[in-house]
Every structure is written in structure tokens, then in C-alpha cells.
Specification:
It is an enzyme of class 3 (hydrolase). Its EC number is 3.6.1.55. It holds the Pfam family NUDIX_4. It catalyses: 8-oxo-GTP + H2O = 8-oxo-GMP + diphosphate + H(+); 8-oxo-dGTP + H2O = 8-oxo-dGMP + diphosphate + H(+). There is one protein chain. By secondary structure, the protein is of the alpha+beta class. Helix content is 15%, strand content 31%. It has two helices and seven strands, in the order ββββαβββα. The strands form two sheets. Strands 4-1-6-5 form a four-stranded mixed beta sheet, with helices on one face. The longest helix has 13 residues. The N and C termini lie far apart (50 Å).
Length: 140
């Protein structure tokens, strides 16, 4: 019996942007992408040589047109999830301060959601374990 092929480790970073009303921003994966139609926290793949905070600053500028300072990114929790062809490791940060106005720059739908309602949005399996920590932090 052959040894199983180890899954490639994919490092992705995400952020829960929290507005003044305590709502969290979700982005819907656009058609044509893997897991299209599911809702997720903004973020993206960590490029070689990048720190997670640098990735979020870059991704938030590209995806949403906002500027975030590293000091405003607070690590909260992480997800570790085995998909069929890779293993995802995803730290989740919380950010309550940014410059600019959130706009969908990559054709994605955006929605501000109350913490208690996050679980009603279909999400990728790796995102689901992140929800209890967010609700504990932000309240219902």
C-alpha cells in the first residue's frame, strides 16, 4: 500500500472588517471562481516573502479600495481545514479602522452582516469555525 500523497499547504489570510454599527463585511465569491456564490471574509493568498499583515493591506486595497494600517489589524483566531486537494491554514484578523470607502473592485457582492446572522450565509467549510470567535468578540 502506497503512502498517501501529502496535501499542499495553502496559506491564506482573512479579515473581519467591523463597521461603527458592529456589523461584519462579507464578500461573495464571484462566478467562475472555486466555491462561487459562497460568502467569505475579505483577504487572499499570502505571497512568498509577505507577512500576513502585508497581504491584508495589499488585498484590501485591491479588492475593496481601502487603506489599512498594520497597527489596526488584530489577530483573532485561525482556521485549519483539509480540502480534497490542499490543506488551508487561514489566520483571521479583526479591523475596525480604515481609510476610504468600501467598494467592490473585483465584481464581488458585498454585505454588512450582524454577527448573529453570519451563520445564515453559505460559507466555505474553512470559514465556519471562525464564526464563534467573532460572535464572542462582537456579541450578537
Amino acid at each position: 500500500m502506497a503512502d498517501p500523497v501529502p496535501l499542499k499547504l495553502l496559506l491564506v489570510v482573512a479579515v473581519a472588517l467591523v463597521d461603527a454599527d458592529g456589523r461584519v463585511l462579507l464578500a461573495q465569491r464571484p462566478p467562475g471562481k472555486t466555491l462561487a456564490g459562497l460568502w467569505e471574509f475579505p483577504g487572499g493568498k499570502i505571497e512568498p516573502g509577505e507577512r500576513p499583515e502585508e497581504t491584508l493591506i495589499r488585498e484590501l486595497a485591491e479588492e475593496l479600495g481601502i487603506r489599512v494600517k498594520e497597527a489596526c489589524l488584530a489577530p483573532l483566531t485561525f482556521a485549519s481545514h483539509a480540502y480534497e486537494s490542499f490543506h488551508l491554514l487561514m489566520p483571521l484578523y479583526v479591523c475596525r479602522r480604515w481609510e476610504g470607502f468600501v467598494q467592490p473592485r473585483e465584481g464581488q457582492a458585498l454585505k454588512w452582516v450582524r454577527p448573529r446572522d453570519l451563520a445564515t450565509y453559505p460559507m466555505p467549510p474553512a470559514d465556519l469555525p471562525l464564526l464563534p470567535a467573532l460572535v464572542d468578540l462582537l456579541g450578537p
